[in-house]
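Form 7-S
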Amino acid sequence: IVETVPFNYNELRTEIENKFKDAGYDTSLGSNVSQLSNIMAYVASMLNVNTALNINETILSYATKRENALEVARNFSYEASKKRSFVYDVTITFDSGDKYLPKWTEFTANGKSYYMINDDITVTAAQKQRTYTIMLKEGTRYTYDDDPDSLMVTTTKITENGQELDQYYIDVPYTNIEENGIEVYVSYFDEYGVYHDKTQFSKKDSVFIESSDTLQKQFIRIDNTEYQTPRIYFKYAGSGKGIPLGSDVYINLLESSGRDGELDTSKTDELKCPITGVNVNKIVLNSFGQDEETIESIKTNAPKVYNTSNRLITVNDYHAACNRDTRILDSIIWGGETEFPKSPGHIWFSFLPNIPNKKYTHDDLNLSY
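Output:
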């Protein structure tokens, strides 16, 4: 292709104005020709966008390989959901004496690990309360202390398209990382020369970002479709300031087993704590683990989520946002204006959970289950 029609509004506006100039028309700001150029550029750019989206929707519907579906979905600013770990509420009792249970204490059962995600618990010998409910999350944890070569990075200069840039992303050489299983800490000097030691950066939940978004102390996770390894962006698609050159980045990870990480809640004696004097009394399921989003779900959700423009206004907007979560099989949402009596300003949600298939035993006569 030697020559193509410009795609975006600014390029189209410049091209149309040049065509009118070459034909001898007055294109000065405020002239009729200038107004006409604006309208023509807007209409053409919208046609371009809609055509591109329609083509992508068609391609997405025919995708059979997961990596292809993921790549096309990203044209809709849609990032497929990752694995989620089982989470349990566990009631524990401390024996007499002083006890200390730090965050990320590793409990084990049936060859799998379950980490306490609550804050540290300190119990003194004089305390009467010795029973607590904690939250455990399944997975295998990797820290920057365990693997400093991979999980401790000092940002440097990189070359992209022949240009030298400050490093604004980091590749993480691990797979099956849980949806919210990345902790990021950054040590850096700000523009005023003040040193910030291991400041925690939080994960931005959506890749829908405004051009003015600075991504202040945030990162965006985009997984490599071929290797299924995460990439952490501190600046993305022209948005965000990035982090200063020479910043030290520290990363902790939680690898998830997804649906395979289930724990038998009836067998409290199988859940072991490495700290003596901690007894497990009760285990209650908090949330189901889920595997990564399926191709069928991506095909359904990507166009719908894009059409919401990352806003929640109509019923369809809410439906698309809810169904994007892999823990939800389907949902129904309705507003108070359809209730009797009417209740404007209220929204009702009904969820069908995406739980693993359960197997039940029964007797030969199907009388007892």
